[in-house]
Structures are given as C-alpha cells and as structure tokens.
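Customer escalation, tier 2.

The customer says the design service returned an amino acid string that "doesn't look like it belongs to this structure." They asked us to rerun it and document both sides in this ticket. The original structure tokens are below, unchanged.
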C-alpha cells in the first residue's frame, strides 16, 4: 500500500515539536511513517509480552515450593497485563486488536527473539527474571521517555512491575548459587544458555539497524541498540560476580578507560535465524498462541454479544 505523502511544512512543524521535547498524543497530527513505526514497534512489544508467558508457564506446575509458585503466577499474570496495556496503547494509533493479533497468529508479526528458547530446568526461571527482565528494564526505562504519550505512560507502570520480576529472578539465582553442587551446575547451565540470546534482545548492532536512526530522530527510541546493550552488560557483570556465576564469554574484559565491559562477538546468524522463525521453539510458541486464541473464541463471542445487548438496551431506553 503506497504511503501517504506528508505536507513538508507539517513535517517540519512536527520535527520542531519533537526537538523541543513535546509529547505526541493520539489526536495530534503525526507523519504517517511515525504512526506506522509506532504500530510496528509497539505491537511487537505487546506480542512479546504475551508470548513471553509461555516459556515460564511451562514451570508453574513444577515450582519447587508454594512460595515460588505464587511468585511465578504473579509474574506471568503481570506479563499478560503488560500485553494488554501495550495493545491498548497501539490501538490509539487507529489499528484494531483483532488486526494486531491476526498478524501474530499468521506468523507475519515478530516478537522478541528471546522467547523462542526452551526453559529446560527450574534455574531457567530465575535466569529469565534476572537477565531477560533485566534487559527489558534497561530498554523500557528509556521507552518511558518516548515521544508518544500512550506508550510512555504504559511503560511507567510496566517498569515498576518489571523491577519486581528482575528482583525475584535474581533472588532465585542467588539462592541456587548458595545451594548444592547440582543446583550450582543447573544455574550455570541456564546462564550459559540465556546470556547471549539476552544480549540479542536489544536488536542488531547500530550499523545493521534499519529503524534506529529514524526512531532516534523522532525520540521514539532514546538510546541506540548498542548503547542499551552496553548498559545492560555493565549492570549485569558485577551481579554475576556477586553470586559466583561465570559469564560464558572467554573474550570478556574490562576497559579501565571507557569503564565498559567488552564482550566477544555476538552470533548474528543465530539472531536472524531465530527472528526468521527458525529458533528452537518458534513453531511451538505460535502453535500454543493459535490454540489459546481458538480456545478463547467463546469468551470473545460472549463479550461481544453482551456489549451489543447493552448497547441495544441503551438505544431503546
Ligand atoms: N527480537 C525480534 N526481532 C527483533 C529484535 C528482537 N530482539 N530486535 C530487532 N528485531 C527486528 C526488528 O523488529 C526489525 O524487524 P522488522 O523491520 O521486521 O520489524 C529488525 O529486527 C531490525 O531491528 P531494528 O533494531 O532496526 O528494529 P527496532 O528499531 O524496532 O529495534 C527493538 C528493535 C530494540 C526490539 C525495539 O523494537 C524495541 O525497543 N521494542 C520495544 C521493546 C520490546 O519490544 N521489548 C520486547 C522484549 S520482551 C519484554 O519486554 C517482555 C518482558 O516481560 C521480558
């Protein structure tokens, strides 16, 4: 579909608003490209939150204690809510929930690479909270200052809950790190499997990111992919050392000058392979989402029927 050609004067006025730090609201004029970029980015974020429930849901019935089960249930319930917030924020851009969910279920829309890996042991649940939610926090705290109002406001509440997610995950890891040799081995194995995919969550390197420049110019993104990845690495290495966990990177070294932890090469072939649908669990995740959607059809039909009945009653009154 050809893109609407925007009036150059309006474009200039819009960029001036962005440059002085204005927050853009749904009823404001915005370039068609700005709207489309937001729909792309926000809907993929919402998809990620909902699909992200699946790997962790795999361990609800096998949590080692009632306390851990309650924490995991609360976290997963939060993720469902995050998905709803962000779908609702995306709908303010003139796109329907049905259309967005249809793009996910058809395999057309992306969701975060990270949820296409299996959760093989209980330690994965702790490492996901620590690394995956930890990476999400680094990303989402900058998105709380994004130029689009509804997205920024959704992030404020989500970031508070993500902080709980990270803390409970890191506490689980710290507990296992002080446990039996088998528990320490289980924890290290989980870190070995989740470390590199967590770094990939921030997207390709800046030189290979087709969207970053435009998104930075419009203050949708406030930091580049590599800046956020570096911030996450600098935050996480000391946390790993504090619980005697090895980072699976023989090239890892600290640069005294830049105060950055420098890492070895990221396997971008793996990243692009996973986001093209060829990761370990892509098919399983999509099948689970399609089944959940089909199983929930009766709820959507009942809700629609009830809403129509209420509307008719109001119109008749
Ligand atoms: N997983 C899947 N696809 C990814 C990706 C990832 N981690 N990183 C990048 N991509 C895709 C992009 O979608 C784009 O493909 P497209 O044109 O088909 O959409 C392509 O790779 C190029 O990447 P860019 O870096 O140019 O794309 P962006 O500028 O959109 O940056 C992003 C990618 C950093 C993920 C950005 O979209 C973003 O910040 N999104 C909002 C945050 C988000 O989606 N987080 C999901 C994490 S999961 C989560 O938060 C749940 C929590 O509970 C753990």
């Amino acid at each position: 579909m050809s893109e609407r050609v925007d009036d150059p004067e309006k474009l200039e006025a819009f960029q001036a608003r962005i440059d002085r730090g204005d927050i853009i609201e749904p009823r404001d004029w915005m370039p068609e490209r700005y709207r489309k970029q937001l729909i792309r980015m926000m809907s993929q974020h919402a998809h990620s939150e909902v699909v992200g429930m699946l790997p962790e849901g795999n361990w609800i019935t096998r949590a080692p204690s009632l306390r851990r089960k309650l924490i995991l249930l609360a976290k997963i319930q939060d993720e469902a809510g995050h998905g709803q917030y962000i779908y609702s924020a995306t709908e303010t851009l003139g796109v329907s929930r049905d259309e967005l969910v249809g793009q996910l279920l058809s395999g057309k829309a992306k969701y975060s690479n990270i949820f296409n890996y299996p959760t093989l042991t209980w330690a994965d649940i702790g490492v996901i909270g620590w690394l995956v939610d930890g990476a999400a926090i680094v990303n989402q705290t900058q998105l709380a200052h994004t130029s689009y109002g509804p997205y920024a406001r959704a992030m404020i509440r989500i970031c508070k809950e993500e902080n709980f997610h990270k803390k409970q995950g890191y506490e689980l890891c710290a507990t296992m790190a002080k446990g039996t040799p088998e528990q320490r081995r289980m924890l290290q194995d989980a870190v070995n499997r989740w470390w590199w995919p967590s770094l990939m969550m921030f997207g390709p390197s800046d030189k290979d990111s087709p969207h970053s420049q435009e998104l930075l110019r419009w203050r949708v993104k406030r930091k580049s992919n590599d800046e956020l990845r570096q911030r996450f690495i600098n935050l996480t290495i000391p946390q790993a050392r504090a619980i005697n966990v090895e980072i699976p990177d023989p090239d890892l070294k600290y640069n005294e000058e830049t105060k950055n932890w420098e890492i070895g090469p990221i396997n971008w072939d793996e990243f692009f392979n996973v986001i093209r649908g060829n990761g370990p669990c892509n098919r399983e995740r999509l099948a689970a989402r399609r089944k959940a959607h089909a199983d929930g059809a009766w709820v959507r039909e009942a809700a629609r029927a009830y809403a129509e009945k209420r509307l008719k009653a109001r119109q008749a009154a």
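Tier 2 assessment: The sequence is consistent with the input. The mean pLDDT is 96. The pocket of 3-hydroxybutanoyl-coenzyme A is lined by residues 40-41, 44-45, 48-49, 52, 79, 110, 112-113, 132-133, 136, 139, 200-204, 209-212, 215, 225, 275 (CB under 6 Å). Sent an explanation to the customer and offered a walkthrough call.
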